[in-house]
Amino acid sequence: MRLMRIALAIIAIAVAGMGSPPARAMAARVLNVRDEGKLHFISSSGSEILDEGPGVGSVPGKVRVHFVYNGNPEVSASFTIYGHGGSISGKANARLSNPTSPRPSFRGAFTVTGGSGRYAHIHGTGELFGVFTRRGYALVVQTIGKLPY
Amino acid sequence: MSRAHTLTVALALCVCLPSTAQAATTATMSAAFAPDRLGANTTLSFNFQIAANERASDLLTGIDFRYPANLGIATSGLGVASCPVAELEAHGPSVCPPDSRMGSGSALVEIPIGPEIVRETAQLALIAGPSQDGYVQILISATGESPVAARIVLSTQLEPGDLQIAVPPIPSLPEAPYVALVRMHFTIGGNLTYYERVHGRNVAYRPVGIGLPRSCPRGGFPFASSFTFLDGGHADARTAVACPGR
Question: Which domain holds residue A132?
């Protein structure tokens, strides 16, 4: 009898949900990001460096980052994460500390600017932390944020 | 093509345009990359010369050196250690960590001694100093031996597209006027040996150097300098390094 009541309640919720606009249902989803990318050098042009590598966490996949460091401790980057169900693109700004160390660290914020596939409607901001290896140009980047999609 | 030949070609392609704000003093400058190839890692050499019409040169108090902001100086891997200013001033660049060396050069100064103008060449070492506010601090150690034995340390901050160098009054002999800096040449990068710890051992390597962009602006890579003098005058100079090949 109890099982029957639960089944009826689920059906009632499902029927009620059929009338809702799809967009509202999509906006309710939130991607809880806590990811890390270990990236290696691909190419450079002057003060801009292109790195790629695997990302692990909530959106596992390939990460591609254009990193710009021109002497200003406010470094900037644009990134794309190629996950299994789609991609996420964004930009980031961070402040570099200890620039004359072999591996300066940085901390800042990122903004998601677009996505594709299951992340077509993703947006939001988050925090990022990282380390830049000055010899070899490797990057380790960690991101934290809640991104509606 | 040899490295020296490449540098010569790059210098030859330079267009040096002196200009003055004060009739008495002119400044010229040149810049060069070696190797001179788009997208390559390179060294940047910079020369300037101050010429005064009067017998003694004006006393230079500051240089504002402007370079293309997208040159990869900050990403050059140069200066992965820093040298304390006090140590550098007291003992010279030999006490600084090898990984703090960023380049070298020379400077020509004029010293009025009685009726004569005596010239002296000082050796320059470019050293990474302790960072201030996240910016790379470049210390320029100038050491002269004869006739005046002196060492001064100039300081500049690496900013996007800009190096501002304050030149303090340089004393010479007792009762004699200050030393006038009339020519300077320095190279960022070059034949440097750094060390890193690998499995507990120090392993030598060469820092890659300044990354040249893969594209070149129309008219070449522009450089400019403004020189200020103790009497309030100033002189400007500019140049461009012609677009190299790929």
Answer: 22-148
Within 10 Å of residue B115's Cβ, how many Cβ atoms?
6
* Beta-strand relationship, B116-132 and B101-113: antiparallel
Q: Domain with A54 in it: what CATH number?
A: 2.40.160
Q: The domain containing residue B173 runs over which residues?
A: 3-241
Per-residue pLDDT, averaged over B170-184, amounts to 85
Contact B80 A72 (CB under 8 A): no
A59 domain-assigned:
yes
Full-model pTM:
0.84
Structural domain includes residue B246: no
Please judge whether B213 and A46 are an interchain contact, meaning their C-beta atoms are less than 8 angstroms apart.
Answer: yes
Q: B65, B82, B85, B131: which to substitute to probe chain A, counting the most A Cβ within 10 Å?
A: B131
Average pLDDT of the residues of chain A: 87
Per-residue pLDDT of B95-145, as tens digits, reads 999 999 999 999 999 888 888 888 999 999 999 999 988 999 999 999 998
In a domain? residue A73? yes
| Residue contact B136–A99, C-beta within 8 A | yes
Q: How many domains does chain A have?
A: 1
Do residues B172 and B160 make contact, with C-beta atoms less than 8 angstroms apart? no
Q: Which of B73, B11, B61 is nearest to B211 (CA)?
A: B73
Count of CB pairs separated by less than 8 Å, A with B = 89
Return the number of other C-beta atoms located less than 10 Å from residue B91's C-beta: 12
pLDDT at residue B4 in the model: 41
